Q: What sequence folds into this?
């Protein structure tokens, strides 16, 4: 594929990122999708919308999140870095964008604030969402409570059983959680059910999608709302060091925190980027790496890389980190992979667990298991980079939610 003049100029007006994206929805949904797109374009031009979004991000979410130079992690990685070919010391500097410090403990709230403001602008009075592990459900229930809108969260029945604390959080926040009994009773079934609800209730209902996927314009608008991460990080790093990073690193479930960090840098040719999928128990076993182990197909209203069998049946994703457990990936990442602008790698459960513990001990930060995948990738590549190189990784969630999973994986009784 030829490199375009601007990677930031995508998607085209029908929502295509190269051959990916688009809007594969039923005819009933088409007018609504077009309506959403029109409203979104108008909101983008409206200084009042931006001011309200920025105000909530500052005073409700707690932005800007800090940019943090992880010096002890950097030193620790340098201790095991081999010298370069001319005997020079190696080991890049590691910096973190601290989005785990946001209200609700992750980046998802940035997008939920943007979408609920759009819903209100469109006069919608009811919110629906789908959730796998429950984190997007909690973020959606949070903004619905904040704006006093009723909220229905679709969640696979199996996930409801596995994720009781998040189910209870959503209920505390006033949301109705509907357990979906069809199919494998997990995330993909919840997405289908949410789309069905939307078709039936388009007159008053807004569907808040939780990652940079779904029919156009969702991948674009989720990206734009999450791009606050990259815009802030860019300004913060320039102010602190006077330069751009050499490498950006972020974990990928559907790809929203990663595209939020990457997008503002996509046209800076010297900034390399690495997206990190979940390799689960290994790429030849159960995993959630759609780019490394999937192939293109259609799910959730867009064309992208998917985990599927030879008949096109969507496969169950697996990762120790519930938030990376998505069988697809946003279409922009599919295109960035094919075009070569972004590199993608995969990290196993075991490697993520090691990185989780490494960050706890070196920096006094308990990360979520999702960004632990990014930290593991940082540890892998930092060793081979010069000491004046800068790696900027997104710490997209905090680990309080994961301590029981980690304890079990380590064989510790708590
Ligand atoms: C949901 C989640 C993810 C995965 O979603 P993306 O859209 O890929 O960002 C990653 N990290 C955390 C902390 C999450 O909650």
A:
């Amino acid at each position: 594929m030829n490199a375009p003049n601007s990677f930031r100029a995508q998607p085209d007006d029908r929502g295509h990122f190269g051959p990916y994206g688009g809007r594969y929805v039923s005819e009933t949904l088409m007018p609504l999708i077009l309506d959403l797109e029109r409203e979104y374009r108008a909101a983008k031009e409206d200084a009042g919308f931006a001011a309200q979004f920025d105000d909530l991000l500052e005073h409700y979410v707690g932005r800007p999140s800090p940019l943090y130079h992880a010096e002890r992690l950097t030193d620790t990685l340098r201790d095991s870095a081999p010298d370069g070919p001319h005997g020079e010391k190696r080991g890049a500097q590691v910096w973190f964008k601290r989005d785990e410090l946001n209200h609700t403990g992750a980046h998802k709230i940035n997008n939920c604030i943007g979408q609920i403001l759009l819903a209100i602008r469109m006069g919608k009075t009811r919110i629906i969402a789908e959730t796998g592990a429950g984190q997007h459900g909690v973020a959606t229930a949070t903004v619905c409570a904040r704006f006093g809108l009723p909220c229905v969260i679709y969640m696979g029945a199996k996930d409801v059983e596995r994720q009781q604390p998040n189910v209870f959080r959503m209920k505390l926040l006033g949301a109705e959680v509907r357990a979906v009994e069809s199919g494998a009773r997990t995330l993909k079934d919840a997405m289908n059910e949410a789309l069905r609800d939307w078709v039936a209730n388009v007159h008053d209902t807004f569907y808040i999608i939780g990652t940079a996927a779904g029919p156009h314009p969702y991948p674009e608008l989720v990206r734009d709302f999450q791009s606050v991460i990259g815009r802030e990080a860019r300004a913060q790093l320039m102010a602190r060091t006077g330069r751009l990073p050499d490498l950006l690193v972020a974990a990928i479930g559907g790809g929203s925190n990663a595209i939020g960090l990457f997008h503002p840098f996509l046209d800076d040719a010297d900034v390399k980027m690495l997206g990190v999928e979940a390799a689960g128990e290994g790429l030849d076993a159960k995993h959630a790496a759609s780019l490394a182990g999937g192939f293109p197909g259609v799910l959730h209203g867009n064309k992208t890389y998917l985990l599927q069998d030879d008949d096109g049946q969507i496969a169950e994703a697996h990762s120790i980190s519930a938030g990376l457990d998505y069988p697809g990936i946003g279409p922009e990442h599919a295109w960035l992979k094919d075009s070569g602008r972004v590199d993608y790698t995969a990290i196993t459960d075991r490697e993520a667990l090691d990185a989780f513990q490494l960050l706890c001990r070196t920096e006094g930060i308990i990360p979520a298991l999702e960004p632990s995948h990014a930290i593991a990738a940082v540890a892998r590549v930092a060793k081979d980079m010069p000491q004046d190189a800068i790696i900027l990784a997104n710490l997209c969630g905090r680990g309080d939610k994961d301590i029981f999973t980690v304890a079990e994986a380590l064989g510790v009784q708590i």
